[in-house]
């Protein structure tokens, strides 16, 4: 003990020495307890600020419409975590946040799991949170969406009101868009090979729908090809679709060889020729119908009977809608296409064809009138095809003005 005495030459009595040792011990204990407390507090503070940040991101999107980032979560559960109040809550409320967070576009569910997950739907129609409805733009493409630069202009400054999904051939798996592109990271996973005229087209459409359904804020679903262009600006397209009381699947009865003839060619058990319909592949539907399509286990398998070119893309959805969901359907497509020249492929508009007159003609459907929510309108088509990549430069030069993209002066 003596050797450890810091004051060996001390003249203090022994009893005082013992007291001093006790004091030392006490201060060590106090120091230890203090350190422990500080540590615990710091750890909690870290948890708290992390939770706060997480909880706040939805609020920041709420306070600044239009939200600045399309990949952000747009569901704003109210009554969630504290906003700025400084009470140290170790476990901020989670609420619906985690459940409603849309998964990343790249997930590892297989098709069975994905379709099952996508078929879920709430049965209580009122949302207990604020939902900004989004439109899912689903691109069915062979490779890259070559008209992407035009679409970029269309989407510019409207983040938060749309989601993009791209299905492209497995050989384009490695394909990537610039980090700043709205198409970046929007390719849906999978290795489905799509063959023109075959049922694989429907399979790809169902996968696009299923992926888009995983995000509950997607309320309208539009299928586009890589050769499609928009005919109006984003705000016009958005309000047209979001406010529509109808779905847009073209449905008609064609008694000819390329209509009913295709029914007799295969025969589809469970579907009568009277129910058989034809229509454009390019549809625009609401969430209810999208869920029905991914959940359909009765009619879709029937189409799989035909393995060759049965043009299921032109018959499956029109027939399905005609049998079960006709009442709410407009029976017309929103995508202009010109079949006037006949043959299996529609007119393609070359670079030299892209003029102010052409685009204005398409925008008004060349004088056509149609019904929208029970009223007559000349806005019959919101999209048009087919435009090859070589038309891109002309489109970029003319379209933004004609279509009032973000107030580009005409
Ligand atoms: C969108 O948000 C993500 C993460 O929140 C960020 O990494 C990305 O840079 C943002 N993109 C744009 C265009 O703001
Ligand atoms: C998907 O995964 C489930 C569970 O592992 C399995 O039962 C099912 O057969 C798989 N489906 C496909 C299409 O691979
Ligand atoms: C959440 O917001 C909705 C409307 O946005 C409101 O009807 C509901 O009462 C709110 N719920 C809570 C718990 O504040
Ligand atoms: C569309 O066709 C269905 C039958 O498939 C019909 O019930 C419905 O009224 C039609 N809709 C319009 C807008 O004509
Ligand atoms: C497109 O332009 C070519 C000539 O450049 C012309 O032959 C063709 O008819 C035009 N097509 C349309 C649909 O206007
Ligand atoms: C969209 O186009 C309409 C005319 O079609 C125009 O009135 C509106 O200002 C445009 N919106 C934006 C954001 O530029």
UniProtKB/TrEMBL annotation:
Membrane topology note? Single-pass type II membrane protein
Record carries keyword Cell inner membrane: no
Bilayer-crossing regions:
25-45
Per the record, a Pfam family? Branch
The UniProt entry's GO CC annotations, sorted and at most eight, read: membrane
Compartment(s) where it occurs, according to its Swiss-Prot or TrEMBL record: Membrane
Which molecular-function annotation in GO is an example for this chain? glycosyltransferase activity
Supply the alphabetized keyword list.
Glycoprotein, Glycosyltransferase, Membrane, Transferase, Transmembrane, Transmembrane helix
Chief place of localization: membrane
Protein's name according to its UniProt entry: Core-2/I-branching beta-1,6-N-acetylglucosaminyltransferase family protein
Q: Which species is this UniProt entry from?
A: Prunus dulcis
Q: What is the lineage of its organism?
A: Eukaryota, Viridiplantae, Streptophyta, Embryophyta, Tracheophyta
